[in-house]
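Request: Show me your protein:
***
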Amino acid sequence: MGLNSTLEPVAIWLQFRQYKVAPLNPLLRGRIGELERELRAGAQAYPDSQRRDFYDVQLTDGWAYIHVYQDARIVYQH
């Protein structure tokens, strides 16, 4: 998680059942299934304080940095 603060970040709950998940980097394709499952079930996420609609999402096996593009109902994994 790329946080540059000594303060404990506040987690929120993200759940997107009807959103498509797409990797911006082809090397991340293997993790898309896990990210989709987590977001459909609901996942703990930490908002990026510098960028609107960007989050660090806690997965079962690590983290994902995402951008939620609500107009297109898509989540981009960075």
